[in-house]
Design a protein that fits this description.
The chain is built from 13 helices and 12 strands. The chain is of the alpha/beta class. The chain is globular, with a radius of gyration of 20 Å.
């Protein structure tokens, strides 16, 4: 029988990249449950919309009756849980949805997965996995000379987003420890690549640079993030799903720490090169703006456990990954136009005007 992976949040940035990759490389079917919030976009999945191994269901992970019915009817061998509110700045302005989806929603999913798992027969029970996709932000902020986060770093989330993800990670851990649910947790650093909603640093800067709009850098621009190309993240998730040890967590990162300002410089230079300059260098668009409240200074991941145990390492270098990403945004004007209409404009106006 065809195996099925139950993906949540598969119309978002990482989830859609994961589904496209999975269907290209793997024979299992995909069931995608997504609420289609402002961050979810079915156009990301146009390429596989008519693939008969793919099914989309519009709904909320917090709708327990729906989740129960889907689990019972589609009998997946795995749940891969991406669905979340994911933008730190939005969590600062309005944390409610972050608690509702990231905490309550994950709880609902875990409860339904547990009931489903407990009623499975021996063989499917042995194969079943619940993979929870999480972030490095649960570990808090590093000082310049600190070693990178390892799986043993204590949790110290600083934003409502990070706190909601930390809470969900703890629930997942408890469901393994208490009920024996075969969970896997991945904590990953900042992703970049195609289909990322342009509220996040890299796509926002690419599009503003393209349009010669101001490039809003928070604070002094010296904050450091560890960037990973999204396809590498998806490959890591597939690896953990296939071979990860049940109950474990795996840190995933790019071994690629960069200061925000250096990222913005690089983007400016690439857009100048690809679009042509005709006028001032795009670096001159950089505008330092008021810092994000509680802005974490530095994230960095020690991704040696996943390499040692499962043999995963990032393949893309930052230089090749960022070039591909800039090209993708410049070449996909229709996608950009669609996601930047309506509520996106409202967010940009409200957030950056103050
Ligand atoms: P995203 O915001 O682009 O997409 C989230 C998706 O979840 C959207 O399609 C949205 O419609 C859906 N969704 C939201 N609430 C839902 C609900 N209640 N029920 C069903 N669907 C719902 O997010 P992303 O960047 O793709 O991140 C995916 C996951 O990876 C998140 O859990 C995030 O915490 C984690 N993560 C992201 C990054 C990153 O750099 N983007 C890094 C590490 C971990
Ligand atoms: P972001 O992409 O929001 O990811 P996260 O906050 O989850 O790391 O931001 C990445 C970094 O870029 C972070 O240090 C905040 C900074 N940033 C800006 O300087 N200007 C911006 O307009 C945005 C969106 C982010």
């Amino acid at each position: 029988m065809q195996e099925t992976v139950f993906v949540t949040g598969g119309a978002g940035f990482i989830g859609s990249n994961f589904i496209l990759r999975q269907l290209a490389q793997n024979s299992s079917s995909i069931l995608n449950l997504d609420k289609l919030t402002y961050a979810g976009n079915l156009r990301n999945l146009d390429a596989i919309a008519s693939d008969n191994r793919y099914e989309f269901v519009h709904g909320d992970i917090g709708d327990r009756a729906l989740v129960r019915r889907l689990l019972q009817d589609r009998t997946p061998h795995a749940v891969v849980h991406f669905a979340a509110e994911s933008h730190v700045d939005r969590s600062i302005r309005g944390p409610d949805d972050f608690i509702r989806t990231n905490v309550d929603g994950t709880f609902a999913l875990l409860e339904e997965a547990r009931a489903y798992y407990e009623n499975l027969r021996e063989q499917p029970r042995q194969n079943f996995r619940f993979l929870h996709v999480s972030t490095d932000e649960v570990y808090g902020s590093l000082a310049p000379a600190d070693p990178p986060f390892s799986e043993r770093t204590p949790y110290a989330p600083n934003s409502p987003y990070a706190a909601s993800k930390a809470a969900s990670d703890h629930l997942v851990r408890a469901y393994h420890h208490t009920y024996g649910l075969p969970t896997l947790t991945t904590n990953c650093s900042n992703n970049y690549g195609p289909f990322q909603f342009p509220e996040k640093l890299i796509p926002l800067m690419i599009l503003n640079a393209r349009d010669r709009k101001p490039l809003p850098v928070y604070g002094d621009g010296q904050n450091v993030r560890d960037w990973l190309y999204v396809e590498d993240h998806c490959a890591a998730i597939a690896t953990v799903l296939a071979r990860g040890r049940v109950g474990e967590t795996y840190n995933i990162g790019g071994w690629n720490e960069k200061r925000n300002l250096d990222i913005v410089y690089l983007i400016c230079d690439l857009v100048d090169e690809i679009e042509g300059r005709s006028g001032a260098a795009r670096r001159e668009l950089i505008t330092f703006v008021k810092d994000r409240p509680g802005h974490d200074r530095r994230y960095a991941m020690d991704a040696s456990k996943i390499e040692r145990e499962l043999g995963w390492r990032p393949r893309e270098t930052f230089e090749t990954g960022i070039r591909k990403t800039v090209l993708w945004y410049l070449e996909n004007a229709a996608w950009v136009k669609e996601v930047t209409s309506g509520s996106y404009r409202q967010w940009i106006e409200t957030h950056y005007s103050s």
